[in-house]
Amino acid sequence: MMRFLRRSYTALIFAFLYLPIFILIVFSFNDSKSRAAWGGFTLRWYEELFSNSAILDAVYNTLTIAVLSAVLATIIGTLAAFAMHKDMRQWEKKIVMNLTYLPILNPDIVTGISLMLLFIFVKMNLGLGSLLLAHTIFNVPYVILTVLPKLKQFDQSLYEAALDLGASPSYAFRKIVLPEILPGIVTGALFAFTLSIDDFVISFFTTGSGVNNLSILIYSMARRGIHPTINALSTLLFLVVLVLLLAVNRRVTGEKKQKHA
Amino acid sequence: MERRWLVYPYHIWMLLFTVVPLALIFYFAFTVKGTYAFTLENIQQAASPVYLKVLWHSVWLAAVSTFACFIIGYPMAMILATCRVKYRNMLVVITIIPMWMNFLLRTYAWMTLLEKKGLINTVLSFFNIAPLQLLYTDGAVLLGMVYNFLPFMILPIYSVLMKMDRSLLEAAGDLGADAWTSFRRVTFPLSLPGVYAGMLMVFMPAVTTFVISRLLGGGQYMLIGNVIEQQFLAIGDWNFGSALSVLMMILIIISMGLLSRYNKNGNGGMLL
């Protein structure tokens, strides 16, 4: 009886989470503009999607900004994590940690308008540049928070042993420190990448007119009403997310298995 | 102290991109438009009944959706935490996947379901029920919040439950507690930190959203997020927009304070 209850509850929750997405996917193949009646199978919304230059531009912007901001944030965040780990007094560390957490705790809308005010205040042109800077800014804390624990786990004596055995500091860093903390850096980079792709609110406030990423484009399309091309877009994005997530999951469980072995 | 120089660039980075932007919000909130003159007028205007009502409505909706997420999410977190190890990872991944789908598309999905000629109304019409106004209502906004933020409630509770020492439950059983008593006296109190974390993670985005309210509530629907967005992007009154943001931040700090106070009380209760 308990088992039956548990199973039906799980099914109910999963239905609630997935049914809307599933229906979106089904209707992306619907050869009728109606959202309720089935008019036969078609791929025309996908064709429309791939011939719509605004959407393709937005995809291009989204990916470029995600890659660049992830790379920049990973470099800055990793360096910052090193600095925070090594060279800070206790009180200094406390302030710096709190300030690092602040953008994560702050609602997106506050981060968005505060950055917009900053950019306008220094008379920066709003557009791809400001978008990239904004994404890098909100990604840095996440990289720091994934790299820092790895640094704390790292046994400093290994590094010192390498130095005692005649390794130069940079050699010891590359051969001893980096391989140990690399998983943290990679996780941070992936995190930054996905956050950047998914962000809407901060982008919305820090972009200029005419420069869209996917989220902004979807918002402006959805505001005007419903259109099957958005369904087609959702389907493709959902598939991409699914594949990425399964790959990451495999990577993580693979790591776990390696550790157990 | 060999790499001391590494610290300063990050100090400057934080100063420029965390401290200064927030300071700008406060600066604009307390100055007269276009000048450097100090004023309280923006704050007074933001605290006028019209906007307090909007603020209250936002808090109310966010609170209701947080509570709904808690009621719906807690059993799910328990199921995840107690199911067989074989299935657990898979079930957790299934719970997470929708969270990775673009937030706007998840909200958009409900637009197509709820609209006048949408799927739900079509299904209802088969039972000869006249089309209901589902979209552009409080209910639609609530639904959108619960749908989008439910995983944020499930996951923290799940991770706290996973860390719980199972032998405590056995001990409770040995001491004669039935399932309900050991849940009420052991499991639930121990899971409270997860509940508070979940509540924070649902309440915060819910109370500041302007997307869900705009798409599912309609163009006339106003939450505090919508008003702020409008001030900045449509009307261009940064001073008043900043004042509203300051008010919203104060509200969030108060609610976070309240929540963490309850949290401490909860821990205190547990110690007794």
UniProtKB/TrEMBL annotation, chain A:
The answer to whether the entry has keyword Cell membrane is: yes
What PROSITE patterns does UniProt report for this protein, alphabetically?
ABC_TM1 (PS50928)
InterPro entries listed in its UniProt record? Bact_Polyamine_Transport (IPR051789), MetI-like (IPR000515), MetI-like_sf (IPR035906)
Pfam families listed in its UniProt record: BPD_transp_1 (PF00528)
Membrane-crossing ranges are 9-29, 58-83, 95-122, 128-148, 181-205, 225-248
Q: Which UniProt keywords apply?
A: Cell membrane, Membrane, Transmembrane, Transmembrane helix, Transport
Give GO cellular component annotations, separated by semicolons: plasma membrane
Give the ABC transmembrane type-1 domain ranges: 59-248
Main localisation, per the record?
A: membrane
* Membrane topology (UniProt): Multi-pass membrane protein
Query: Which family does the entry's similarity section mention?
Result: Belongs to the binding-protein-dependent transport system permease family. CysTW subfamily.
- Please give the name of this protein: Spermidine/putrescine transport system permease protein
Q: What is the lineage of its organism?
A: Bacteria, Bacillati, Bacillota, Negativicutes, Selenomonadales
